Amino acid sequence: MSENLDEMRNSRRDFDHGELNENNLPQDPLFLFKKWLEEAIMGEVEDPNAMTVSTVDSDGMPRSRVVYLRDLVQEGFIFYTNYTSNKGEQIRDYGKVALNFLWTKLDRQVRITGIAQKIPAEMSDEYFAKRPRESQIGAWASPQSKQLSSRQQLLESVAKFEKEFEGKPIPRPPHWGGYVVIPNSIEFWQGRTARLHDRFLFELGKDNWRIIRLAP
């Protein structure tokens, strides 16, 4: 174990996949994010739409987990979850969230802060209808974030709903659906050589986005 830790402490690599330049930045950060996401997909980055979602609990403690970005709309970033999960309850109580995308293959990172709001039920219905049937069953069967006595309890819940919906379309559970994260800041990080990275912060003002270069 100590040899592995020593290797980790002394591991170094340089970043040389590109640069960010003030003269080439769009005024709309969502335009740049979409471009970067498409490049991550084309570059065969594994799970390019995986993002860390951070919320805050009642003690002010940050809580993070990885989910998948499922859509990018004019308002912001959409993901789906159980509304009664820990993150769902924390979003309900406080609304503020942070997102983080890391594409190590491209030496890129995007950090986002904003407010999460439920999307219209019709949008959640449409997405839920396209999910694999086993995922639809899982949304009904899993009391996400709640304590289980055993895995068997979960499997019995799955079996119960498989029987209930046998031969029928599965409706979206009322406790499951989507959120859109409406951003108020988006930071783009491009790794550069000698740790002199390019970082640009887009902050939402009254009428437009303000662009700030940050020190690496």
Offer a concise description of the structure.
This protein has 216 residues and is α+β, with helices and mostly antiparallel strands. The chain has one domain (15-132, 175-214): Pnp Oxidase, Chain A (Roll), CATH 2.30.110.
Explain this structure:
Strands 1, 2, 3, 4, 5, 6, 7, 8 and 9 form a nine-stranded antiparallel β-sheet that branches. The protein is 30% helix and 32% strand. A hairpin with a 4-residue loop joins strand 8 (198-204) and strand 9 (209-214). The two termini are 32 Å apart. It has one domain (15-132, 175-214): Pnp Oxidase, Chain A. It is globular. Helix 5 crosses helix 6 (151-164). It is of the alpha+beta class and 216 residues long. The protein is built from six helices and nine strands, in the order ααββββαββαααβββ.
Shape by Cα distribution: globular
Report the CATH architecture. Answer: Roll
Count of individual beta strands: 9
Mean pLDDT level: 93
Order of helices and strands: HHEEEEHEEHHHEEE
Please identify the structural class as seen in this structure: alpha+beta
User: CATH topology, what is it called?
Assistant: Pnp Oxidase, Chain A
**Strand percent estimate:** 25-35%
What is the class in the CATH system?
A: Mainly Beta
Low-confidence stretches: none
The figure for the number of domains is 1
How does the SSE layout of this entry go?
Elements (H helix, E strand, L loop, with lengths): L1 H9 L18 H14 L7 E7 L5 E7 L2 E2 L4 E6 L3 H9 L1 E8 L4 E11 L2 H9 L3 H9 L9 H14 L11 E15 L7 E7 L4 E6 L2
Antiparallel strand pairs: 1-2, 1-5, 3-4, 4-7, 5-6, 6-7, 7-8, 8-9
Helix pairs in contact: 5-6
